[in-house]
Amino acid sequence: MDLNKNRMVGLDIFRVFSVLIVFLFHSWMHIDCQYGFIQDFITMGAVFMTGFFMLSGVCLYFSYEEIDLSDIKLIKKFYIKRLIAILPLYYIVSCIYILFLGDMSLKQNIILFPVEAMGLQSLCDKFFSITHNGGTWFISCLLFCYISFPFAKEILMQLSKRERASWLLINSFIVMYFPYVIYYFNLDQSYSNPFFRLLEFFIGMILASFVRELRESFLNKFIFNPITALFLFSLIFVSISMLVKNNVYVNQYMMYNVICIPVFSCIIICMSNIEFAGGGGSKTLFKKLSDIAYAFFLAQFFTWSITKYIFRYVRENNFFKIFISITVCLVIAVCLHEMIEKPIKNFLAKIGSI
Questions:
Q1: How far apart are CA 116 and CA 130, in angstroms?
Q2: How many CB atoms lie within 10 A of CB 247?
Q3: 155 Cα distance to chain centroid
Q4: 128, 278, 283, 351: least surrounded by Cβ within 10 Å?
Q5: Where are the alpha helices (DSSP H) in 70-186?
Q6: Closest CA to 198 of 57, 63, 61
Q7: What is the pLDDT of residue 354?
Q8: Mind listing the pLDDT tens digit for each residue in 275-311?
Q9: For the segment 103-137, what is each residue's pLDDT rounded down to a tens digit?
Q10: Which pTM was predicted?
Q11: Which residues contact 71 (CB under 8 A, 6 or more apart)?
Q12: In whole angstroms, how large is the CA radius of gyration of the chain?
């Protein structure tokens, strides 16, 4: 996640913020946590998955911008590195969930195994409600994004500014317009559909391709400014809260793309070159939180059951529900990251796989 070898702390902050909002949304869904004046906003927290996929496209583009992925050896290395980054932890967490919390029969798990092992569950939206796939669909979508990245990146590098802008508009139009078609004709939901998530990922890649040019423009000081970022975050908070309060397409998360795509685009561009006050300590903190973001997502498989179990013996209280659930999730995430994610990556790095 770097540009010119510098850590992009602004994007780390955006990732951490997005993960936190999705967590608060899940805590409301699973254990009925309440968040006062931001409650309306939190009930639509799932829209930040759109920001997550856009951010993934941005970060990968920055990381591989100077690497020639037309070389088959480098493509293979890219795939190995990306698969190692997400699959081992996904497999281990899935196995633990199936063994201790799953309610599927042995036969059902055997039938599902090839689908889940290859990350194909997002191809059918009905998988969303089966076993742990309501939480792993995004991994399936990420795999499709990673498979497409080398080819999309090489094509993007050869396009003119006007052609890139055209593709940005086309992709944005599709992901903003198509949810209304789905809603109008009562079709299958698109929330976990890999095609639409892939388009969000491509939008992020295209945005990243414009950052260098924007850095050299006369609007540089206005665009890459913490005050601008704060205004944009306030804008999306107020917009979503007002729409929910007026019962406008509540729970139709993808229909909010008409707001989220343009605002998230501006936020990501704005924060891609922002250095926040606080020195190295702040960078280190957000880097560490960003590094465990993936584990934090997966830790939620166990967080809600453990939190509910704790409240069998402790008087239930909204503040403590929030505090305990965040603490439990954070502890599990750190354990998953330190005991599984990092050792596997370090081991493979030593033997030269990545």
A1: 11
A2: 7
A3: 24
A4: 351
A5: 72-100, 106-117, 133-157, 161-184
A6: 57
A7: 55
A8: 665 556 667 888 899 999 999 999 999 999 999 999 9
A9: 999 999 999 999 999 999 999 988 888 988 889 99
A10: 0.94
A11: none
A12: 20
Q: Beta strands 6-7 and 2-3: pairing type?
A: antiparallel
DSSP string covering 36-53: GGGHHHHTTGGGHHHHHH
Place of tokens 């789905």: 182
Which among 110, 78, 115, 50 has a CA at the least distance from the CA of 255?
Answer: 50
Amino acid at 165: A
- Pull the structure tokens for residue 29: 């869904």
Instruction: Check the CA dihedral 273-276-281-287 and report its sign.
Output: negative
The string of DSSP letters for 186-254 reads: T----TT-HHHHHHHHHHHHHHHHHHHHHHTSTTHHHHS-HHHHHHHHHHHHHHHHHHHHTTSSTT-GG
| 50 C-beta neighbours (distance < 10 Å), count | 23
Q: Is-contact 290 19, C-beta < 8 A?
A: no
Q: How far apart are CA 292 and CA 215, in angstroms?
A: 29
**Distance between CA atoms of residues 171 and 177, nearest Å:** 10
10 vs 16: CA distance, rounded Å: 10
* Tokens standing for residue 73: 């050896």
How many whole angstroms separate alpha carbon 211 and alpha carbon 228?
Answer: 16
Whole-number Å distance between alpha carbons of 47 and 70: 34
Rounded CA separation 25/250 (Å): 13
Residue type, 34: Q
Q: Are 298 and 95 in contact (CB under 8 A)?
A: no
Please, are residues 40 and 244 in contact by the beta-carbon 8 Å criterion?
Answer: yes
